[in-house]
Amino acid sequence: MAYNIKEIALRVGVSKSTVSRVISGKGYTSPEVRERVLSVVEELKYKPSAVARAMVSQRTNNIGVIIYRDQQPIVSHPIYGKIVDSILVAAQAMGYSVYLATDRGMSLSSTDFMMEKRVEGLILISRLRQNVIEYVKKFNIPYLMVNGSTDDPEVMHFVSMDEEGGSHAASYLYQLGHRNFFVIAGPQEHRSHNLRLRGFQESMERMDENIEMSVYYSPESSFEQGYRLLEEQWDYFIGQGFTALFATNDMMALGAMKLLQQRSVPIPGQVAVMGFDDIEYAAMYSPSLTTIKVDNSKIGHDAVVMLDRLIKQEKVLSKLNEYTSELVIREST
Amino acid sequence: MAYNIKEIALRVGVSKSTVSRVISGKGYTSPEVRERVLSVVEELKYKPSAVARAMVSQRTNNIGVIIYRDQQPIVSHPIYGKIVDSILVAAQAMGYSVYLATDRGMSLSSTDFMMEKRVEGLILISRLRQNVIEYVKKFNIPYLMVNGSTDDPEVMHFVSMDEEGGSHAASYLYQLGHRNFFVIAGPQEHRSHNLRLRGFQESMERMDENIEMSVYYSPESSFEQGYRLLEEQWDYFIGQGFTALFATNDMMALGAMKLLQQRSVPIPGQVAVMGFDDIEYAAMYSPSLTTIKVDNSKIGHDAVVMLDRLIKQEKVLSKLNEYTSELVIREST
DNA sequence: ACTTAATATGGGAACGATCCCACAACAAAT
DNA sequence: ATTTGTTGTGGGATCGTTCCCATATTAAGT
């Protein structure tokens, strides 16, 4: 069992108040006593209990991060991993400790345990159900959402400017001379995938009314599904002579690209491929993937800064925090 | 501020003891009182404070996970991400909450805060310095290391059977007919990279004394360094006519493969490429990468199970837990 | 009628810190 | 000589639970 302040006081021969004063550095302490206390503290490797301290100070300095996923990967997901990395770094720099948890579907169990742990704020990552949001709201605790799918105007939300990004992708591909597009869109209930698609479509229409575009919805925005979807539509794909393929995220784009390579379709010679997100692997792939970069590190960092402001009850500017996305041109186009 | 048990007791008109009994479900409580208490609890969304509970029960049900990295990626690293995923899932299933932190170099600050938080056990991930290990030891708390680099026999350690894996790789490539190898090895101070290399080399020597093998050490086991190292040795590489390239991890193998593809070297036609780890991207790459699979999910899961045993002071079998690695044959060989 | 047991409830100590308050000792200022 | 201020220390309430113990009521067994 860990030592406590009383034990230290006993060994030094002073009261626990004095020990407390030495450790916290506030209040008067004589140099000799201070030294004796510190030497015993060092010797026994005494660390004051954050649990007891939280009890009296009514502050835990803990924040909770919950990632909503129905299956693996959780943190090994290229986007969420990046976000968690930056949350970790920012939180530690600001003096918060982070509880990390994952919940599936509409489970509330992680929320419950976070509340019991008395976290001071909550960061909800990924697409969580509305019932979870309603539940979290009831606890009157600062929270915010990253990469979610809600239209609830009450919820502070950190997302990329998906529609704008889709539009960037459209302009770029159009400008390269492409006029017929095969588009792989993520699940329709996904806010960001929808917006990316809409931005792409509307931008195209604005530029040219005679664009050929075939849109397919993937049940999941994964590598495997990107691959499979293109495989299922292969005959049509080849028959129609599409010159460009746009997917609403990199994973699906990579999946499609993998199939194209296996079937020896030159990229970008015969078909240009473009994704969205700029995950780590996009640059590594061969050919490297042209994409729309979303700065998830910045999003994660800013989310922590904002949560801190909410915790400190400082003024916040806006509920919806949108991040500009930027075109990254690589080998696949 | 969150409600407390006294507030609930006051509203129901009973003592806090009674409320406590209703919530914990132990001791006698009359049905009517129970119902009244539960309805107020539900109405106010009261959650008992785990902080106060930890105070009296002397158990926090928290474990700490510290990832030692000098730079990003932390959790977005393909291996550590996988490990953290499985730790999260296992820990939650066993009733533990997890604090996640990261430390650089020989910093002790995460250890300190974990001790203050009174975590019941610690999982140390990645290559941490010996001074950190010595520091952790002093606290007399269950801890174990995953994917580390220590030779300290005292430290419970979870690693893959790297030497065996290197040997598998050697046999496989030899059996394919390769006799001259270009090897990219990770940093020499890395235990696992060293063992992988040694297993590869010694196995080769055992099979055939006339093997040509050029070994290069990369300062970092990353994609970029794999790429760069091959680029620097390019003339030699091409001149010598190596038919196989083995890297001691997938990231470096992929980096090298990327360069080979950019320079239009057919894989595996002219050069076969093999990695180690079987990270997610190995299968996605085109061509997909032949590698030695390390089951990091299992390692993470088992580490939690073991930590739980250490916490419960149950008997543990061995300090060193090694996981067999298995050959995964794909397109790159 | 009287012990015994089961059911039901409340009071209060304990966990390990913080922090306010009381009190001493001593110096400096009136 | 008395007040005031500074320095240094200790006592004890407090935070929100759990859990032991005391007490009360009712039912059952002798």
From TrEMBL, chains A, B:
**Organism ancestry:** Bacteria, Bacillati, Bacillota, Bacilli, Bacillales
Quote the Gene3D superfamilies the UniProt record gives: 3.40.50.2300, lambda repressor-like DNA-binding domains
Which InterPro entries does this entry report, sorted A to Z? HTH_LacI, LacI/GalR-like_sensor, Lambda_DNA-bd_dom_sf, Peripla_BP_I
Tell me which UniProt keywords the record has, alphabetically.
DNA-binding, Transcription, Transcription regulation
Indicate yes or no for the key word Signal: no
Question: Which CDD domains has this protein been placed in?
Answer: HTH_LacI, PBP1_LacI_sugar_binding-like
**Organism from which the protein derives:** Cohnella luojiensis
Transcription recorded as keyword: yes
Residues covered by the HTH lacI-type domain = 3-57
Taxonomy, superkingdom: Bacteria
From the UniProt record, which GO molecular function terms apply?
A: DNA-binding transcription factor activity; transcription cis-regulatory region binding
Q: What is this protein called?
A: LacI family transcriptional regulator
